Amino acid sequence: MENKSIRPELFATVTQGEDTGKLTVNVTSERDNRPIEGASVRITYDGQPDNIIEETTTKTEGQIPDVELNAPPIDYSMAPGANKPYAEYTIYVSAPGYETLEVSGAEIFSGELAIQNAALLPISPTDPTGAELYVIPDHTLWGDYPPKIAEDEIKPIDESGEIVLSRVVIPEYVVVHDGPPSDQSATNYYVKYKDYIKNVASSEIYSTWPEATIQANVLAIQSFTLNRVFTEWYRNKGYDFTITSSTAFDHKWIPNRNVFESISSIVDELFTNFLSRPNVIQPILTQYCDGKNVSCPNWMTQWGSKSLGDQGYTAIEILRNYYGSSMFINSTDVVSGVPASWPQYNLELGSSGEKVRQMQQQLNVISGAYPLIPKIAVDGVFGPQTEEAVKTFQRVFKLTPDGIVGLRTWYKISEIYVGVSRIAEGVAR
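and the corresponding structure tokens:
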């Protein structure tokens, strides 16, 4: 399909002073996570399906070029107010042999890159006209959602019959119950852990906020989630899921919502971290509220964390301001579902050894699905060819193309390798 430039007449209703944000769409097959080249992507204003802003197709890596879209002024997201701080768009994705995907309500903030991941289902022989529709509800800072029901931040794990893990492990997947625990009709989704955290953070805070504020909120979300994993909280109550999408019980998670690069990059750097207190093994159940519609003494407030970030507070200073000086950041090197954990040091030009060999082998498998990434010798030596393959991988997956395999690049390589090699094919989707 031919690329079309944005038509000025479609912006007749845009008020003067609006800003712009960007959107990218990544299209893969739900069956094996491989990129889909030549998929059609159409973007319209929400509720205006005939007002086409952009029509384009995905490249070899299953992506479209970043699309610039109008967004409200950035000031709208910097303090509570009467103006919605984001614009909403509808995204249509289609490809031969796959069901059409429609996402309504994709959020665009000023100056931010929004990422829409689209995993397409193969067409069913019994339903050749199949299509998936997802409507993204209001952001939690804008919409009306039930407040968190207070719980103890440390769970009693020594009671008879209680099931807990022996150590903190980052799971490959969490099972998200899309509703309150008692809703037996709600769907259970198998979601990659990092994708879950990115989704929740994008649903509960604004991506335009200070980096330290985003870090503090991501750490709180991760610690809360890992507490649910560590204590097997819901499974001990007879449920078959890890966590819910209800704000009254857990966090707001939304199927197929877009996430934001500023949040995504922080999650990629911090996903092995959680919050601890002295002599407490389990991650702390860090509860919070917005601080505007709901007050919550002794908990972090999201708008309050934004104010502290504006004042130059670091992430741990923000967290200790609310949870006390005994709160500290912990980490684990146990990441379930990956072939090997990050070696705790960067791999770069001149490095050698088994970790380099593992990385080279994984890149070669990935190159079968992403041909832009060149095949390289699996010799355990990080030479110029390996460096170029790493840089290409980083460019494809929108990482800093420095040719250095740090924590973020290592785990992204591992994630894509697991997906395309079907190591985890036994996991329900």
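(Above: one complete record from the training split.) The chain has eight helices and 16 strands.
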